[in-house]
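Hey, I was hoping to borrow your eyes for a little while. For a while now I've been wondering how a particular protein folds. The fold is given in discrete form, as structure tokens running alongside the sequence. Could you read through the record and tell me how the tokens relate to the sequence? Take your time with it, there's no hurry, and the full record follows here:
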Amino acid sequence: MNALPPAHRLRVAIIGGGFSGAAVAWHLARTHRPERLTISVIEPRPVLGGGLAYSSEEPSHRVNVPAVRMSMDPNDPQHFARWLTGSGELEHDPAAIWKNGDAYPRRRMFGRYVAEHLAPYLGSGVIRHVEGPAIRVTRERNGAGWTVHTPNARVAADIVVLAATHPQPAIPAALIHLLETPGFIADPYATSALAGIGPEASVLIVGSGLTSADMVAELDRRGHRGCILALSRRGLRSRGHPDIRGEPFGDFASAPATTALRLLENIRTTLAAARAANVNWQSVFDQLRLQGPALWSALAPPERARLVRQLRVFWDVHRFRIAPQVASVLDRRHAAGTFDIIAARLVASNDEDGSLAVSFQRRGQTRIETTRFDAVINTTGPAHGQALQLNPALSSLAEAGLIRTDQYGLGIDTGLDSRAIGRNGKVAATLLVAGPLARGTFGELMGLPEVARHAQTVAAEIAKLLETLPSAEAIGANATHGPVAS
């Protein structure tokens, strides 16, 4: 089929060119009649596909799951592993291969893999990279189109996909007094963020999850040998991978729990059964991850809220595991007495003649301690609950009543078709959400396999519009799914 003139092609604008947005663009371009599409990806980074997660140039930042479990194509689980083998990268990075043969390459390699698969479509013009941040999104008065505003361009679109990156970590109120001090690092993934930390510096890391582990590994690679203290409310460290990977174990979906407590009981029972069968606990959580959408949908909203409020932190440290290379650094530093994790809450902070004084109260104690550090690194995790306030494009849509925060504070409220739900429950049929920002609806949407599947699903929703519309001009009249927000 010959390509339609540009004026008659369906115009899709994707806000965010990290993995979520890049995967949606790729699935659209390769499987859904690209001759009828013009796909614009609005992304400030110079290369699409890396985003916050896979753009890091730091050698110690590795993918957190084996390469054989990472793929842009949910129908081809070995897609990345084959590319990695053919790329020659493993020859230059022998440390990527762990003792059991699994590969945990540097994170930037996955970003390169995504970028290379987008390249043919960028070259042909099916996908267009609009380099810059989206600062505002407006809807045409007749409801038939959108305009995405960037500092240097306006992108007209028939469909908009919100695939924005993770918001930067929120700064705890107790650390506000350190914001202007040189030793305080608010954005741990900023270029050379840790370069100014001396080898003997005492370091406080606020948070004990994946980013915290990354910081310890990076400091160690840079030659740091001072003391590192990680502090979080629960003091839980992200778990590692088993020496031998097993198949997912258990069944949580046949008769899914309808309360958070019952789900916890089912998990504990299954873990006991796994121990009796000599199966590692990771296999149980792999099954929970696979069956996550069914488990989430079986819970009523109050039970979902209870799950997020009371059990999410425990889920996170078991679900989001660290690469064994990183885990070995943490183990070695802990054994040497130069790394520790404590459960505590921050109380106050102050800059005292170049040293950063931080006061905290350990869990279960009444005494408040004050310790001085040379550097404080904030790794509290993405501020998903503030995404609509922190991201100007999302903020403009929220102010117009076209999107709203989901009731669990995880991201943007959507229907099961991934269309955004706005003020008063109105749906914009041509405004979709891809990736982690939609997890309030779908539950588990942080891991790469889940994000890849969701990207494929969002692309399929767009394809339905493409198949039913005779031309781009008719989209406003024909693409209605429920009441359309004005």
Q: What stands out?
A: Residues 188 and 478 are 46 Å apart (CA to CA). The mean pLDDT is 89. DSSP finds 16 helices and 16 strands in the chain. The first strand starts at residue 10 and ends at 15.
